Structures are given as structure tokens and as C-alpha cells.
Known about the structure:
34% strand; alpha+beta; Nuclear Transport Factor 2, Chain: A; elongated; 6-stranded mixed sheet
Amino acid sequence: MLKLNNLALCALALLAIVPTAQTLVTSAARAQTANDHRADEAAIEQVMKQYHAAILAHDGTTLSGLFLPDANLWLNVLTDSAYAKAQAKSAAAQKVRVSSYRDFAKLVSTTPKSFDPEHSNVVIHTDGTIAAVYFEFVFNVDGKASNRGSETWQLVKAADGWRIASIIYSSEPPA
């Protein structure tokens, strides 16, 4: 009988401990997930910094390396007011302009002009595998704003780190 009572006491003690242990495991998992999320956001912010540095340095090779090699979606969408102005100048004006990161990297590499994109109000959403970055921008050429709007990047976490899959931005050039 004594052995049964000791066994019953041990079982009761374990029942009291199990919920606490489960809470500790769940808390540790949440903390790890939060740490992973912060690490992914930091890595994505680093891609943005590398993008900016490559543009400042006229380094199209580094810029191209930030993209998935086979990704080729680069859309410039004129705002309604910018499109109306463009149509007034030319009936053939396009509201949505399709390009590629390769074209932009070539421009960055070959232009004598100074490019300096400014990003603000950056918001990053990621699940650790894919990400969307949304921000406002002003694109400066030779120290003057030549374009402004909102921009979104879609990124994927490839085997070698975060890579840009596409860039889509609204465009409101100054008058």
C-alpha cells in the first residue's frame, strides 16, 4: 500500500508540473520565433542597404546580385495625375511601364549622374520564407528629386539568403 501511495503522489506531482513545463516550452518556442523574425527583418534591411550602396557606387554587378537571377518583374506605374501629364505630351504614353532589374543595373553602371534613392516609412512583412517590403521613396538625380512615390519589393529567402524577386513602384515625377 505504501508503494501505491508513493506512486500516486509522484503522479500527482507530475500532473502539477506538466502544464508549467508546457508553458516553458511554448514560451521558448515563441521567443525563438521572435528572434528568427527579427533576424529575417535585419537581413532584409541589409539587402535594402546594399541596394542603396550599389546605386551610390554605380555598381550594377552588386545591384544585380541582390535579385533572383531569373526574376524579371520591374513595374513603374504612373499615378493618375502623372499619366494625364504624360498623355498631354504624347498620346502613346504608357501608364504601366515594364522593365527589368538588368536594365536598371545597366543604367546605374553607365550613367555619369549621381543617383541617391531615399526610403522612408519602411514596413517589412515576412514569414521567414517570403517577404514584402513597402515604403515611400524619393529618387534624387544630381541632388534633385526626379521621382517620388510608393514602392514594394517582394523577396524570397533563397539558399544563399534574401533575394529580390520583384519591384513595383508608383511614379510621380515633378512637373
